């Protein structure tokens, strides 16, 4: 299965740019026959957090930018019916405030730390849901995939993950939309995995 990765951020002047060819998804031992996945050309696209939000203003999105990118992606899909995408977004000004306040990247202890973990996750999910909403409004079939539900870390390194649902979405022509997220960590309690790290793990 061929993979490409494309990024849209401020360094690309807000336009989609291909950055490198990624490795195939990891092989699995599932009894379900997902052999078709190996024949797909899958492109990973990242929407940079500094592009889709105003990082100087907490919790401030740039919906017009998200919509423009959605339109570009829709044109690409129309031009290649065999194209399969995984899209991800950075958190930008949404989760960074709460992540800094609670120090979630370094784990948590006590009730306040647990509350912070939940707050950061909610903030990260909020900007992702806005992206998905706009993509749906543009007629793009995509669904939010919460990294917290499919990845488990140990000392900030991926210890276990389950991507069968992502592969099933791809097979059915639905775009998985992931994002940088807080993850449960068996050593620290929690850690933060950026969109770049999530996409690298999926590649």
From TrEMBL:
<keyword id="KW-0808">Transferase</keyword>
<keyword id="KW-0067">ATP-binding</keyword>
<keyword id="KW-0547">Nucleotide-binding</keyword>
<dbReference type="GO" id="GO:0102043">
    <property type="term" value="F:isopentenyl phosphate kinase activity"/>
</dbReference>
<keyword id="KW-0414">Isoprene biosynthesis</keyword>
<keyword id="KW-0418">Kinase</keyword>
<dbReference type="InterPro" id="IPR024192">
    <property type="entry name" value="Fosfomycin_R_FomA-type"/>
</dbReference>
<dbReference type="InterPro" id="IPR001048">
    <property type="entry name" value="Asp/Glu/Uridylate_kinase"/>
</dbReference>
<feature type="domain" description="Aspartate/glutamate/uridylate kinase">
    <location>
        <begin position="42"/>
        <end position="199"/>
    </location>
</feature>
<dbReference type="GO" id="GO:0016301">
    <property type="term" value="F:kinase activity"/>
</dbReference>
<dbReference type="GO" id="GO:0005829">
    <property type="term" value="C:cytosol"/>
</dbReference>
<protein>
    <recommendedName>
        <fullName>Isopentenyl phosphate kinase</fullName>
        <ecNumber>2.7.4.26</ecNumber>
    </recommendedName>
</protein>
<dbReference type="GO" id="GO:0005524">
    <property type="term" value="F:ATP binding"/>
</dbReference>
<dbReference type="GO" id="GO:0016114">
    <property type="term" value="P:terpenoid biosynthetic process"/>
</dbReference>
<comment type="similarity">
    <text>Belongs to the isopentenyl phosphate kinase family.</text>
</comment>
<dbReference type="Pfam" id="PF00696">
    <property type="entry name" value="AA_kinase"/>
</dbReference>
<dbReference type="InterPro" id="IPR036393">
    <property type="entry name" value="AceGlu_kinase-like_sf"/>
</dbReference>
